[in-house]
Amino acid sequence: MFDFFKRSKRDVIAENREKGRAFEDEQDTYHKIMGRKIKKLPKGPDRKITETDWLTGRRKIWYEEYKSSSTAPLRPSQKEFMRKHPGKMKVIRPSEPFVFHEPVKKSMRRRKSKTKKRKRSSENDDYGFNMNNVFGQNNEEWF
């Protein structure tokens, strides 16, 4: 009915491309401010981010894929990369606050100790000091 407001597909795709480039530039600026190295990748995720801890010299490496739309799907090469490298890639969309995101951390599993812990018995809770045994021996005549 009101088709005279409809934009051509070419215009919509060009606008989406501009939004995507602007979002990528915004993210690149953020990482540069934080002192991280950024490398553009031809396949899979958009960027490889490297952060070096200046105290220890350790490097954290992770990959980021930027989507300028909250509903944009991942390409097959990106899905394959996520499958091959679980926990190394993060998809960032504009609905998420970009300032507060941090690299994906490996899950920290707590290992159970092999030694069994001794349970305290109710007799040992006072560590040998109670009113009946003040000086380490049974002195009932004192009280």
Description:
This protein is α+β, with helices and mostly antiparallel strands. It has a domain at 8-92: 3-Layer(aba) Sandwich (Trna Endonuclease, Chain: A, domain 1). Helices cover 24% and strands 15% of the residues. The protein is built from 2 helices and 4 strands; from the N terminus they run αβββαβ. It has helices at residues 9-33, 76-84, and strands at residues 37-40, 47-52, 59-66, 89-92. Strands 1-2-3-4 form a 4-stranded mixed sheet. It is elongated and about 80 Å long. It starts with 8 loop residues before the first helix and ends in a 51-residue tail after the last strand.
CATH classification, class level of one domain: Alpha Beta
Summarize the helix and strand pattern as letters. HEEEHE
Mean pLDDT comes to 76
Q: Span from first to last CA?
A: 101 Å
Examine the coordinates and then state which fold CATH places here, giving the name of the CATH topology of one domain: Trna Endonuclease, Chain: A, domain 1
Number of helices: 2
Cα Rg? 30 Å
Q: What CATH architecture label of one domain applies?
A: 3-Layer(aba) Sandwich
Poorly predicted ranges: none
- Kindly state the percentage of residues in helix: 10-25%
Shape: elongated
SS elements, strand count: 4
Strand content: 15-25%
Biggest β-sheet strands, sense, barrel: 4 strands, mixed
Order the strands across the largest sheet as they lie in space: 1-2-3-4
How would you classify the helix and strand content by structural class?
A: alpha+beta
